[in-house]
Write a structure and sequence with these properties.
alpha+beta; Phosphatase 2c, domain 1; six-stranded antiparallel beta sheet
């Protein structure tokens, strides 16, 4: 699959960004996708599901629908307005994909779908706004510390938080995604940016088989001049650690 954004270093208001998606070592096709838009100060990743063609369509369409909705609206004034607009954009993507599933005769809870996680900075110098549905992740590496900013919306994570012991659900069972259900409740929040911050947006094919400290080791060496090499190193790490899924990584580094 050709990504919406080819692997080219992008200069945007938030900083320097590079994204890479890879089919991995097992899957016959790539249902992940990514989008880097300097003109909108927007970066996002989506991990599709619903069969070979369905997953590719869902991940592509969800990214484009959010972009089109944000582009069509005037720049929001104030943090609360930005959060509302971003939530509306995600809901618009979900309702459109859901209607497409319904038109194809696919019952509620079935059909094509996708995770969706990204960052958008509508005003230079202001905060970024994070949106998240599913189990793709956004990490922040700041002052030598790696923090996961998003919360996995999976049955596995839900069981962990409930203190379930013994047999846990499979890690890939999502509580919600873009497309299969009529309603979705995206996580949307403001993320202040600091000089030198490094953000990693990735699908579960990247983080699922690799330890957090191994990711952190690569991120510690990622500077504005080697984001492409660092993305490639992350993808290669996932492969070496036995990832059986498509692998996508976006690195965004804020200026010093």
């Amino acid at each position: 699959m050709i990504p919406l954004s080819p692997p080219v270093l992008q200069h945007m208001g938030m900083g320097m960004a590079f994204g890479l998606t890879d089919v991995g070592t097992v899957r016959p096709s790539n249902q992940d996708n990514l989008l880097l838009l300097p003109e909108l100060n927007f970066v996002a990743v989506a991990d599709g599901m619903g069969g070979h063609v369905g997953g590719e369509i869902a991940s592509t369409e969800a990214l484009l629908l959010v972009w089109k909705h944000l582009r069509a609206q005037p720049a929001p004034q104030g943090e609360s307005a930005a959060l509302r607009l971003l939530q509306d954009a995600v809901l618009f993507a979900n309702s459109t994909l859901y209607r497409n599933n319904a038109a194809a005769g696919l019952a509620d809870g079935y059909g094509m779908g996708t995770t969706l996680s990204g960052m958008w900075q509508p005003h230079a110098g202001g905060p970024a706004f994070v949106f998240h549905v599913g189990d793709s992740r956004i990490y922040r590496y700041r002052n030598g510390q790696l923090a996961q900013l998003t919360h996995d919306q999976t049955l596995y994570q839900q069981a962990l938080e409930a203190g379930v012991t013994g047999m846990l659900p499979p890690r890939n069972l999502l509580l919600q995604a873009i497309g299969p259900g009529e309603e979705v409740r995206p996580d949307v929040f403001a993320q202040p940016l600091a000089p030198g911050d490094l953000y990693l947006l990735c699908s579960d094919g990247l983080y699922g088989a690799s330890a957090a400290d191994a990711l952190q080791t690569i991120l510690a060496r990622a500077g504005p001049g080697n984001l492409a090499e660092s993305c490639a190193a992350l993808v290669e790490l996932a492969k070496q650690d036995g990832s059986r899924d498509n692998i996508t990584a976006i690195l965004l580094r804020c200026p010093d």
